[in-house]
Amino acid sequence: MLKFVARRLGVMVLTALALTFVVFYLTNLPPNLEKLARTEGSVRMTDQAVADWIVGNGHGGSVFGRYAEWIGIAPGWTLTDEKGVTRGRCIAAGSDPAAAPNYCGVLQGEWGFSTVFKKPVLESVLQKLGSTGWLMMWVMIVMVPVSLIMGVLSGMREGSRLDRSLSIIAIATTATPEYVSGVILVAIFASATAGISPILNEWGWISGRTLFLGTATSAMDGITFWNFALPVLTIALYGIGYIARMTRASMTEVMTQQYIRTARLKGVRFRDVVLKHALRNALIAPFTVIMLQFPWLLNGVVITEALFNYKGFGWTLVQAAGNNDIDLLLGCSVVAVLVVLVTQLISDIGYVFLNPRIRLA
Amino acid sequence: MNTELLSWGQIIARILQQFLPVWIALIITFTVSIRYKRKLGLYGKLFDSPVGMVGFLLVMFWVFTAIFADFIITLDPIAQFGRVKNPLPGTPLVDPKDGQYAYFLLGGDHLARDVFSRVVMGARRVLTIAPAATTFAFIMGATLGLPAGYFGGKLDTVLSFLANLVLAFPVILLFYLLVTPEIRNTGIPVVLAAVLFIFPVIFFCTLFNSRFFTNPPKRNLYVGITLVIGLWAYFGLAFNLDPLGVWSMDPNLLNVFVSVVFVNSPTVFRIVRGIVMDLKARDYVAAGQTRGESAWYIMLWEILPNARGPLIVDFCLRIGYTTILLGTLGFFGLGVSPESPDWGSTIDDGRKLLSLYLHPAITPALALMSLVLGLNLLADGLREESLKD
Asked: Which of B161, B173, B180 sits opposite A336 (nearest CB)?
C-alpha cells in the first residue's frame, strides 16, 4: 500500500512539473512578454525598448532557467543597472539587495504580483478560492445525493418505467452544458418578462420582481437562497446526469450478482436487499467518478462564474487570461493542476480502500 | 409600412414553412430506412429502438438544416437590419427591400441581425467542425491506442503518461492558452497541426500496407493514392502550402480545430487501448498470430473491426461533446471572428442582455441542447441495439 501511494505520488509530482512547465512556456511566449512590456512600460515603446524591458525584468534567457527560478529551485535573477541600483526577482522595491533571499519561487510561497488586481497573486488566488469553495460545497451538497438517488433508483430495476424516465432525464442533463442550462434557468426563473416570475408576481406569491436573482455578485457578501440557487443548480445539473448514469451502471451490475439472488431467494424484502446488500457495493464506482468529476466542475465553475458574474476562482482565471496577467494565470494554473491531481490521487487510494477485492502488496 | 408584430402562431407556421426542405428530406430518410431496416445492419436496428429513433431524428434534423441552410435562412446572417436593437420575435423589418424577407422570425440581436438565420447558419458551422475534429481525434487515438494496448510495455507507459498529462489539464485553461490571437504568431498551432494531421496519412498507409503487402501492385496503388491525396491535403491544411489552393484552413479555424482534436484524442486513446487489451486475448487474434500475420495486420484488420461497436457509440457521444467544447470556445470569444454565427458566441452575445431580452440567447441555447441531446440519445439507442446481438 505504501509503495503504491509512493509511486502514485512520484507520478503526480512528475505530472505537476510537466503541466506547470507547459503552462509556463505558453504564458511566457515572446508575444505575451511583448504585450506585457507594452502594458507595463508604455504603448509607444520601440521594438528595441521592448526587448530591453524584457531582458531588464528577468524575462530574458532560456525558458528552462526562468521556469526553475519561478518554481524556486534556481536562484532568482539579479541585475545591476548603470546607476548601480540592483534589482532582482527576490528583491522587493526599495529594500536592501544583500538581505534578499536567493530563492523565491512558487515553492517559497512567492507567487508573483498580479497586474490586474494590483496585489500579490497568492493573496488574491486564496481569497477567490474561498468564494469558489462555497460554490463547490453547495454544488456537492446538491449534486451528490440527487445523482446517487437517481442512479440507485434507476439501476435497481433495470428496464422499468422509472429507469427509462430517469435515464432520459440523465441524458438530457449531460446534453446541457452550463452555458446553455444557465441561460435557460435565468430565462425561466430570473427574468422579469418571461418564465414563471411574472406569473408568480401577479399572483402575489413573490414580493420581488423575480423568483431568483440572475447574477450572483451579491453572493460575495452573503449567500442566500435567492442569489445562489441558480449558479449552484447550473453547475450541478451538468454533473448529475453523468454521475447518475455511472451509479446506474454500477447498480445494475451489482443487482445481477449471485449474492443478491441468494438474498432474494432467502426471502429478504426487495427494499432491504437494495439498502443492505447492493448499495454499499454499488457506490464504489461512483465514488471514483465523483472524485474525477472535480476537473469537470472546474470547467463548469469558470463558465458559471462568468455567466453569473460571481467573482471566484473561475472568474479570476478569465480575468488573468484576458488581461495577459502572466503571474496570476500561472498561479491559477498551479491551483487548477493541483486540484486535478489531488482528486485523482484520492480517487485511486479511495478506490483501493473501498473495494475489498483489490489488495495491493 | 407594416408595423404589426406577428403572433406566435404565425411565427411557428412561418418557421415550419422555412424548414420545408428539411421535412421532405427527413420524411424520405425515415420512410426508406424503416422500409429496408432489416437489410441495413446496425443502422437498421436503430429503428427498433424508440430512443434511438428520436435521437436520430434530432441529429438528422440539424444535419439537413446544415445542408439546406442556404434555402432556409430568411435574411443574411451577418448583415444588420435597421437601428432598432434586439427586435422582438415577429418584428417586421423597418423598410424591407424588394424580395427581402419582411420579418425577424425569432427576433434580432443587439446589432439587429436576424437570430433565426444566424442559428441556422451556425448549424452548418458546428456540423462541419465537430464531426471532422472528432474523426481526426479518433484516427489519432486509434493509431496510438492500438499499439499501446497490443504491445504494452514501455511504449504503453510513455503514451499513457502523455495521455494522462493532457487529460489532467483543465480544458478551459488549455483553451485560454492555446486559442489566443498571439499564439498564432509563434507557430505553435502549425506545429501541433503538423503533428496531428500526419496521423490519418500514417493510419491509412499502414492500413493498406498491412493488408496488401503480399500483392505489391495493389499495395502500391492504394498506398500511392493515400500518399498523394493525404500529403496534398496535409500540406494544404497544416502549412497552407497547397499549390492548387483546394485545401486550406483559416488560421483561426485551424487553431480551434487543432485544440479540439488535441483535447479529445487522449480519451479516445484510452478507450481504444482498453478495448485492445480486452480483445487481444481472443482466439481470432491467436489464430492470426499463428498464421504469422504482422502485428499491424492483427491490430488494424482483426481487432479494430471487432471493436467497432463501442467505438461507434463513443463517436456519437464525442461529436456531442465536441459541440459543447466548440460552444465553450465561442462562449469565451476564443478563436472565432465576432461576426461568426456559431452558437457559442451567439449565446455569449445574448447573455449580456438576458434579463431584458431572452430571444437572442435562448434560441442558440436550445439549438445546441437539442443537437447534443439527439447525439446522446442516438448513442444510447446504438448501444442498446448493439448489445442485443
From this structure: B173
pLDDT at A94 over 70: no
Per residue in A142-187, pLDDT (tens digit) is: 998 999 999 999 988 888 899 989 988 999 998 899 889 988 888 8
Helices A178-189 and A294-308, axial angle in degrees (round to 10): 40
- Of residues A219 and A127, which shows the higher confidence score? A127
Give the gap in angstroms from C-alpha B96 to the nearest C-alpha of chain A: 29
Helices A284-292 and A225-255: angle between axes, nearest 10 degrees:
140
**Cβ separation B327–A19 shorter than 8 A:** no
Model pLDDT for residues B130-143, shown as the tens digit of each residue: 999 999 999 999 99
Residues in chain B within 8 Å Cβ distance of A321: 173, 176-177, 180
Cell representation of residue A44: 509607444
Buried b (16+ CB within 10 A) or exposed e, A258-289: eebeebeeeeeeeeebbeebbeebbbbbbbbb
Which grid coordinates belong to A58?
528577468
Q: What is the ipTM of this complex?
A: 0.84
Distance CA A197, CA A163 (A): 32
**Which residues of chain A lie closer than 8 angstroms to B365, CB-CB?**
179-180, 183-184
Beta bridge partners of B67: none
Residues A303, B376: C-beta atoms closer than 8 Å? no
Residues of B (170-209) whose Cβ lies below 8 Å from A: 170-173, 176-178, 180, 182-183, 185-186, 188
- The shortest C-alpha distance from B60 to chain A (Å) reads 17
Helices assigned H by DSSP within chain B: 8-18, 20-35, 41-45, 50-67, 69-72, 115-151, 153-168, 171-178, 181-186, 188-212, 216-239, 251-279, 283-291, 295-297, 304-306, 308-331, 343-351, 359-387
Contact B170 A336 (CB under 8 A): yes
Q: C-alpha distances in angstroms, A90 versus A64, A86, A331, B250?
A: 18, 11, 17, 44
CB contact under 8 A, A191 and B327: no
The per-residue pLDDT for range B241-250, each reduced to its tens digit, is 777 777 777 7
Looking at the complex, report in whole angstroms how far the Cα of residue B292 sits from the nearest Cα belonging to chain A.
37
Closest CA to A152 of A260, A250, A259: A250
Report CB contact under 8 Å: A15, B372. Answer: no
Single pTM value for the model: 0.88
B161 in contact with A at a CB cutoff of 8 Å?
yes
Cell of B351: 447573455
A12: number of Cβ within 10 Å:
17
DSSP secondary structure letter of residue A191: -
Cross-strand partners of A113? A120
Asked whether residue A139 carries a pLDDT value surpassing 80, the answer given is: yes
pLDDT of A361 above 50: no
Contact criterion met (CB < 8 Å) for A19 and B347: no
Cell of A81: 543597472
**Chain B stretch 283-322, residues whose beta carbon is closer than 8 A to a beta carbon of chain A:** 320
pLDDT at residue B187 in the model: 80
